[in-house]
Amino acid sequence: MRLSHLLLPAAALALAPALSGCGTDSLPPTADAAWYIQMIQTGTCQIQGHDDQLGAVTSTDRTKVITDQVDGGNVTCTVSGTGKFDVSATTTYKDLSLSVNISGLSKSATADKPVKGNVTYASTKTIAPYAGECQFFFEGTKEAIAAGKVWVSFICEPGLTNSSSATGSTCEVKTGYLLLENCETEVTAEE
């Protein structure tokens, strides 16, 4: 065997790590989410009060997230802006679904001065989707917002309404937490 036949493959192997990044874009991190919702039975609410969660999150602890396209989870989200942020997200996992749209959410939002946004929530416990306006705010020291991520609390008073109900079932969300990470930072044409 000639020496030149051995040197060419060895040289190619030596250069492979240096050339592996050429001409390729690195993939962005995969979006992930967690949320908790406590719906209570008040007024015209026609379903039993209950808690539901995707992953595990509170205002102070982030224990588990659901990652887009892992184990059947779907997370699509955008958190864009500077100073004031627009948040758009749809999360689904098994029988759980939560969609959120918030305009102008800033770090200064408090329980006394929240920012309004829209929520649509569904699970086997609600039978059909409930939707309505909610109030979003930051509590605790860990909740925050920046381009591509948000961790925020919310309540929905007077509540979310099931529009398919003949009598208009409206149920209050007493406590809610939303965590979104690795989201898009710019609104795309499809949104």
Short description:
The protein is mainly β.
Domain count, please report it.
Answer: 1
* Oligomer state of the chains in this structure: single chain
What is the tally of beta strands? 13
Low-pLDDT segments: 6-23
Span of the ends, CA to CA? 61 Å
Q: In percent, how helical is the residue content?
A: under 10%
Overall average residue pLDDT: 87
**Beta-strand percentage?**
over 45%
Biggest sheet statistics: 11 strands, antiparallel
Order of helices and strands: HEEEEEEEEEEEEE
Choose one word for the global shape. Answer: globular
Alpha-carbon Rg, integer? 22 Å
Category from helices, strands and their pairing? mainly beta
What report would you give on this structure?
Strands 1, 2, 5, 6, 7, 8, 9, 10, 11, 12 and 13 form an eleven-stranded antiparallel sheet that branches. A two-stranded antiparallel ribbon has the order 3-4. With 191 residues, the chain is mainly beta. 9% of the residues lie in helices and 51% in strands. It is globular, with a radius of gyration of 22 Å. The chain has one helix at 3-19, and strands at residues 32-40, 50-54, 56-57, 62-64, 66-67, 74-82, 84-93, 96-106, 115-122, 130-137, 144-146, 149-162, 169-181. It has one domain.
Question: What key attributes describe this structure?
Answer:
two-stranded antiparallel ribbon, 11-stranded antiparallel β-sheet, mainly beta, 191 residues, 1 helix
